[in-house]
Amino acid sequence: MTETIGDRDILLLVDVQNDFCARGALAVPRGDEIVRVANRLATRFQHVVLTQDWHPRGHLSFASTHPDKKPYETVELAYGTQVLWPDHCIQGTGGADFHADLDVPRAELVLRKGYHREIDSYSAFVENDRKTATGLAGYLRERGFTRVFIAGLAFDFCVRCSAEDGHRPGFKIVVVEDACRGIDVAGSLMQTRRGLAELDIACIAAEALG
Question: Which of 68, 88, 97, 117 satisfies CB 3.0 to 4.6 Å to 26 for a cystine?
Answer without folding.
Answer: 88
